[in-house]
């Protein structure tokens, strides 16, 4: 079912995180459109540009503006997804997020030496886009989950993050099929849909409290997600 211009306005608006009116975001949006891509194809082009330009690191500030992530050329999975949402809105494609409360043990394999300090629960903003009729989760940006399940599953280890994994394999938070790609067992609660990640974090807060982010983020945000080495 289509939505009217008035109904779509909140899903296209600039926000403190999704600052799509910033020159850096607008420039990336123009690049994504340069080949004539539109709709889903444009989102794939934008995702590939972000994957190539923004290095994956262990940053903690989920409310960092997309333009700042682009300036730094590095970002967490959440921050890189926010850039994709900002570019989408800049190109006139509405976005929203699904809030998921994920068991912190999902990240234990990635942080084997830091397990005692990994939060018990992580607030995850999982984007959805509306390039045509109906909402498209970022999990299905590159194809439907049934097709993507043919690839090796995401393990949350090594260089690959959730942001990168959606281009290669099924990231299935609902347990709709293949057991190897089923991540539903890590989901402790579905927080519902929000007009923006700003709205989600306003209601539920970020995973890591402000004092800890202030103290730790300047260091963690320089460590590559692939090898644990500072950049």
For this entry, give a set of tags.
four-stranded antiparallel β-sheet; Papain-like_cys_pep_sf; 231 residues; 14% strand; 9 helices; disordered C terminus; globular; C8orf32 fold; Transglutaminase-like superfamily protein; Transglutaminase-like; alpha+beta
Structure in a nutshell:
Residues 58-138 form the Transglutaminase-like domain. 34% of the residues lie in helices and 14% in strands.
Task: Determine the structural class based on helices, strands and strand pairing.
Answer: alpha+beta
Helical content band? 25-40%
Low-pLDDT residue intervals, each spanning 5 or more residues: 227-231
H-E order? HHHEHEHEEEHHEHH
Count of helix runs: 9
User: Gyration radius, to the nearest Å?
Assistant: 17 Å
Reading off the top of the CATH hierarchy, the class is best stated as Alpha Beta
User: Which band does the percent of strand residues land in?
Assistant: 5-15%
CATH topology: C8orf32 fold
Number of strands: 6
Could you give the order of strands across the largest sheet?
Answer: 5-4-3-6
Overall pLDDT metric: 86
Question: How many domain modules?
Answer: 1
Outline the biggest β-sheet.
4 strands, antiparallel
Q: What overall form do the CA principal axes indicate?
A: globular
Give the terminus-to-terminus CA distance: 46 Å
CATH architecture: Roll
Folded structure, characterized:
The chain has 231 residues and is an alpha+beta fold. The protein has a single domain, classed as C8orf32 fold (Roll), CATH 3.10.620. Helices cover 34% and strands 14% of the residues. It has helices spanning 5-8, 23-33, 39-53, 66-72, 77-90, 145-148, 162-165, 197-204, 210-220; strands at residues 55-56, 74-75, 95-103, 121-129, 136-137, 187-194. A four-stranded antiparallel sheet has the order 5-4-3-6, covered by helices on one side. The protein has a two-stranded parallel ribbon with strand order 1-2. A hairpin with a 6-residue loop joins β4 and β5 (136-137). α2 crosses α5 (77-90), α3 (39-53) packs across α5 (77-90) and α4 crosses α5 (77-90). Mean pLDDT is 86; it is low at 227-231. This is Transglutaminase-like superfamily protein.
């Amino acid at each position: 079912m289509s939505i009217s211009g008035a109904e779509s306005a909140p899903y296209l608006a600039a926000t403190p995180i999704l600052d799509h009116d910033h020159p850096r975001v607008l420039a990336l949006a123009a690049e994504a459109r340069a080949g004539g891509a539109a709709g889903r194809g444009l989102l794939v082009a934008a995702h590939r540009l972000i994957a190539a330009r923004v290095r994956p690191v262990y940053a903690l500030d989920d409310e960092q503006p997309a333009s700042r992530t682009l300036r730094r050329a590095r970002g967490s999975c959440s921050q890189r997804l926010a850039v994709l949402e900002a570019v989408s809105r800049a190109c006139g494609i509405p976005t929203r997020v699904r809030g998921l409360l994920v068991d912190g043990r999902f990240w234990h394999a990635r942080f084997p030496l830091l397990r005692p300090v990994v939060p018990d629960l992580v607030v995850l903003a999982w984007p959805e886009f509306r390039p045509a009729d109906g909402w498209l989760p970022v999990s299905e940006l590159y194809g439907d989950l049934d097709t993507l399940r043919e690839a090796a599953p995401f393990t949350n280890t090594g260089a690959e993050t959730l942001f990168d994994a959606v281009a290669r394999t099924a990231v299935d938070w609902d347990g709709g099929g293949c057991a190897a790609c089923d991540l539903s067992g890590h989901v402790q609660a579905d927080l519902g849909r929000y007009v923006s990640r700003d709205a989600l974090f306003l209601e539920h807060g970020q995973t890591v409290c402000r004092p800890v982010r202030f103290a730790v983020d300047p260091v963690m945000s320089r460590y590559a997600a692939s090898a644990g080495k500072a950049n």
